Amino acid sequence: MLKIENLHAEVDGKPILKGLSLTVDAGEIHAIMGPNGAGKSTLGYVLGGRPGYEVTDGKVTFDGQDLLALEPHERAAAGLFLGFQYPVEIPGVSNVQFLRESLNAQRSARGEKPLTGAEFLKLARGEADALALPQDMLKRPVNVGFSGGEKKRNEMVQMGIIDPKFAILDETDSGLDIDALRVVGEGINRIMRKADKAVLLITHYQRLLDYVRPDVVHVLADGRITRSGGPELALQLEREGYAEAAA
């Protein structure tokens, strides 16, 4: 589904990704772990098409398309979802209206009919209930006044509504307490653990992987994948740290 070949990228002229290669097939969940500054978030931003992240070499294909040739909204319409480490606040924009417009814009780009207001509200309320997000938060401005955990649950509600093919989740566990971590982990499994979908989980810690068991764990250090293994690799990293694995 996603194939990255020899990817090099820089920010403000500073090289961050230095020949990263990775393949994620449909039906798989891959975890990316690594020390601060290794390039984990940069990888997510490059795949999502964030401005300021310049690809200097390499190739990325998504479902057979040249991902790097697509604009960010085209990547989203193709089925890519990027969950942010720090979801932004959007004052003055209703959460429910933002989600409805986002979904219908993608449906339109795919030649699908937009959902009616009633159809959308039924979908949004179902996702909010599944992720323990109070219904009144759907009416509030996007993420404004939300706690860290509420922002992450709201982002999972977005993912459930959009229903992407491929999700890149950048430190979704950041700022979550034990109960919220379980709810979010169960949400990822419910929405994305399917034969025609795939996930790239970016995380510092093993704790989210107790709930979302990955098929493959990768160590990213100094801009490239230095080691890959099964779920047991995450446990080893938790015990021993990154120094040896990153060498």
Automatic annotation (TrEMBL):
Keyword set includes Nucleotide-binding: yes
UniProt keyword annotations, A-Z: ATP-binding, Nucleotide-binding
Similarity annotation: Belongs to the ABC transporter superfamily. Ycf16 family.
Protein name per its UniProtKB record: Fe-S cluster assembly ATPase SufC
Pfam families, per database record: ABC_tran
Cross-referenced PANTHER family: ABC TRANSPORTER I FAMILY MEMBER 6, CHLOROPLASTIC
Record-level Gene Ontology MF annotations: ATP binding; ATP hydrolysis activity
Organism domain of life: Bacteria
Domain ABC transporter: 2-247
InterPro entries given in the database record: ABC_transporter-like_ATP-bd, FeS-cluster_ATPase_SufC, P-loop_NTPase
CDD domains: ABC_FeS_Assembly
PROSITE patterns: ABC_TRANSPORTER_2 (PS50893)
